[in-house]
User: Fold these one by one.
Assistant:
Number 1:
Amino acid sequence: MEQILASLVEVFIAVWGLLIAVLGFVAPWTPLIAWLAYWLFAVNWTKMWPVMARGGWIGVFLLGLVMALVWGVVAPPTGGAHFILGLTVQNFTGKFVYVTALFLMAMFCGFVQLSGSCGSWASFPEEPAADEHHHDDAHHAHAAAH
């Protein structure tokens, strides 16, 4: 019995060490994982895509531009340059590349969701149209008046 208890303690210690190692590997990637999870599971791309097609992409582009400019001023890289894929690029160019990559990942999440690959994980219940609510309220008000 004592040997089984010692073995269980060793297994617990090994699992705990594995958990710490995995968390140590995943922790630096947590913001990117959260970004991808948000755009994949929390955004209704069925409604967002027509808005983007009607010109919403202009607002997204301007938002990205402002993000890159503010990020470049607030957090310049050490040494004044970024090293991206073996290239040395200046601060604002590097920030624009990073923001563009984030937006492309968000768009890719939209494509994955629109393809139906998420299944029920990214299903959004249908909301009644605004006209239906207004019509029902007017109908009830009219019925209450008579």
Number 2:
Amino acid sequence: MPMFQPSFSKPIPQGAEVVDRNGKRYVRLAEDGKPRLFPLTKNGRSYLRKAAVWYAKIDVNGKKKHPLSANKAAAKIMYGELVRQKEMGRAGAVDSFAVHADRTLAEHLAEWADSLRANDRDDEYVSRKVGRVTRTFTGCRWVTTADISPEPLEQFLAGLRHESPMLPPMLDGSMFTLKEVRHLLGGICDSAVAALIRRHSLAATGNGKARRYPRETVERLRTDRTKGTAAATSNDYLQAVKQFVRWMVDHERLRRSPLGLAKPVNAQADRRRERGAFDEAECLKLLTAAECSAATFRDLTGHDRRMIYLTALATGYRASEVASLMP
């Protein structure tokens, strides 16, 4: 049979009725509100039932068993497409899209990461992009390219923005250790705590193991944690997934992008970090301090740093953009 529904065994539910029919034993179970008979296995401890999905037994691209559809008419159409692919392969016309269709997204993602590194992307960039795409695949329950669609992606991103993590109850006391702060913030890592403290200019005392965090600092961090992901971060998740899908299209692994309808949200309506601009007096103070500095930082003298600050102030470039400039 080119198309079939494989059988699998399941344990007999406790109290289920076992009946004999024409010398064979069956178990009677209710399915969709109606009683049905399922044959018992030889040992009599389990019963057999057919899989909901039809399968095809045909050798295409080195794979001999292909899942089709639960609908028999649709399964026949899909089987016909498999036959066409096999005949095209015999004629030497290999469909590159079909070759990649049965591969998992995890395999494609690993090769995308290699492609990013080959294009001189640094490890931090690759780790962030791959991590966000991986988290999206998990949240959307995508396994193969056929699973990719805009609806579950939009729901996943909305969940990131609106669903807050369950945090443990606040502890008593006025000062907390790093271990206690990590616990109160849902188990984030040490570096994440340090980054949040610097980002929001929050108070902390001591260094190393003696470092302590005031109650006000911890409560502020907990409040921010319950707000969900910022719109800008949600958009970065979307951008990373679209970037991966575009790479799939460019390398003939997908015929077209299925995420064309997925749009970013308005990041200006949900700003979490307000960056303050220097006034004229502050700019002059910064430039004067750099010019008068005798220290060398990252092989840059005070005069060199003043020129870099002038360039950034005049152009609005970020640090990485200034660093990319050539003489």
Number 3:
Amino acid sequence: MNNAGELRPYTRRVLLTTAVVAGVVVVIAATTWLIQGLLVVFAGILFGLFLNHLSRHLAHVLNVRYGAGLAIVVISLLMLVGGVGYFMGSRISQQVSEFSAEFIDAGERMWNRFEQSRLRAWIDGVSAEGNTGLLPSSVKVVTKARSAIAITLSAIGGLVLAVFLGFYFALQPEIYRDGLVRLLPPHTRPRLNRVLQTISKKLWRWMLGRLAAMALIGVGSTIGLWIIGIPLPVTQGVLAALLCFVPNLGPLLASVPPILIGLQQGGNAALYVAGYYLALQFVESYFITPLIDQQQVSLPPAMILTVQLLMGMTAGFLGLLLATPLAVVAFILVRELYVKDALEDR
């Protein structure tokens, strides 16, 4: 009986520690899901702003109501996506499959070279001494593959949800704007309305600038890879254009597949691709992006890189993708509500 009585405090401590650890894990998981959900909502707001501004400009040009302009924009986008899928779907899918085959073949060649290199022999020697964790096991590879598939499916679901959210935001934007404004005291509502209008205009200009930069990088990548002789330049140009939505880091990420394919071809093709993408990155970072920033918000490059790093570490690729527009919103809120209203008024 005494032994059982002595175990009770220890058992309570174990249960308390387990509960605390479980609570911390639940809080971290809930925070991660909450951040991901908020980022999806913010992506929907961005898409809704894009539809809203485009519809208002179109309605002004055609002298029709906003609802008619929104209907024209949505129908036009659906027809564009459907037309591309119908007329170019088979060709695009063929090029994507060829690109995947080229990319996988390049990776296999790189792995074969690694297998025959001295580095692999040194790693095998170290592994033989007991350090077997240097190379991934087949179980780890399968686990990472399943994780990648789950992340891809989650990204597709988030994209679909963001599109629907953007449509509903653009359908009746005044409902959501007025609901947000009414959360604050009446005397602050006019000021908040002006700040929200400023954010809307700056994000619209930023999106137009990013679309222009994406088009320039896509065309430049396609032409450069075609001149160098890298296979499937159009597909890789489209990939470079999509990744260019992420300033500074996008062109670097887009350079990996063509460099691997250039290594497969042999010769100096990989060096030419690396040099060309380095020049493209220089032009995008020091000419295109600064010119775009001058048209909307002059964000310091160090601030953009810092926000990208923090958002990438916190929320993964989605956070990295939306880091710059989030920085734009934060910059405007701090400048308008803190610097101007709080500091300069005093």
Number 4:
Amino acid sequence: MINAILIDDELNALKNLKWEIEHFCPNIKIIDSFVDPVEAISAINYLKPDCVFLDIEMPEMDGFQLLNKLSYRNFDLIITTAYDNYAIKAFRAHAIDYLLKPIDSDDLKSAVSKITANKQKNVLGFELKKVLQSISPPTAHRKIGLPMAGRIVYKNPETIVYCKSDGNYSEVYFADGNVEVVTLKLKEVEELIEHSDFFRVHNSYLINIRHISEYVRTDGPYLIMSNKKDIPISRTKKNDLLQRLER
């Protein structure tokens, strides 16, 4: 028996996948399913499934982010998605199976048969480890969902100049001059963005390194950003920031 966890932010898609598995894959035991990727991370690390069915295109945390946050990765991965895009092509190149929605029962059975063979050979998770070591998602096209009052706004991280703490909220300053207040603490915004170009220069400021116009040594030091705003640098962050800028 293969123990599986299902993850999809769309409840109907999750129900459909359950139905397909229950009717066409008797050797798959669904041990849990999630619409919340954060809850799924804890469950995978704790339950240690043989297989994970993962929707790669989720707004609050995409499949790449979820996989990179896991401490347990000894499982085979089957991607479920409605889009045959860059991520699918990358996984396909590394022999990771994927299922296009709506899921075809024959494709499902074919993917599951490979997992059965891998479990018998004791090589579960082998391809997943290889793919995570060798590829990363192109950030230029990845959008993040910023929760605001009564809505979620999807933005490319590259359009963000910097974020400023405002207690339990954060102000997000964009390159086009817009400023939005999100219902997250700055630490939560940092975790959500999870982008190599962002750096916490101060307890109250998270900046996009690509939007730095000047580094001013006097009176601080401080940064002048592309939107002409001055951002202080804490003494504990100064050396780390300079090292990042040198790279």
